[in-house]
Design a protein that fits this description.
175 residues, alpha+beta, Alpha-Beta Plaits, 5-stranded mixed sheet, 5 strands, 42% helix, 21% strand
């Protein structure tokens, strides 16, 4: 994955009315149903080859299109030394996506950090949110020393909760 992290790409953000509209797509309906049921949540990390904004934009466009179709939501944090991604959806959809991710030659040293079932999505509004201002908690030296791999599930989720809170505040500043 060759990427830069400061793109201001629009996020997928369906409203509640999107789900109840008579012409809604089947994938959005299924996604809504999964928001209120148990979903698989997976966090992995990988190492980038360098930064390239065009490549990141292409990755995000493809991910948003495919994730919307497959009922997957999540977020991508990217830095010069690390990609950290949380994906959530049905077991089958997440397993298939992770299998594709591990075969993707745009990044390497892919490691699953967490795979768990949760009762609520962390990113129901976004097919794939990108952290435009990487808010990750670890320095480059800490990442190199293995801090991400050593992080507890709670610490990993807390990083993504901050990303979600920041994105929601940016989209709804008066809320």
């Amino acid at each position: 994955m060759r990427a830069g992290c400061d793109l201001h790409t629009p996020s997928f953000a369906p409203t509640q009315s999107t789900y109840t509209h008579p012409t809604q797509s089947r994938s959005l309906y299924l996604q809504h149903r999964q928001e209120i049921a148990d979903v698989k949540q997976l966090i992995y990390r990988s190492e980038p080859f360098g930064f390239d904004r065009a490549a990141l934009a292409a990755i995000l466009v493809g991910a948003r299109r495919n994730n919307q179709r497959d009922g997957i939501t999540g977020a991508l944090i990217c830095r010069h030394d690390l990609y950290l991604q949380l994906i959530e959806g049905s077991d089958a959809a997440i397993d298939a996506l992770y299998a594709r991710i591990t075969r993707d030659d745009r990044h390497d040293n892919i490691r699953m950090l967490l795979s768990d079932t949760v009762d609520r999505r962390m990113f129901p509004e976004w097919a794939m949110l990108d952290d435009e201002m990487p808010s990750i908690a670890w320095s480059a030296a800490e990442v190199a020393a293995g801090a991400v791999e050593a992080a507890t599930p709670g610490a990993l989720r807390a990083v993504f909760e901050r990303v979600a809170d920041t994105a929601r505040a940016r989209e709804h500043p008066s809320a």
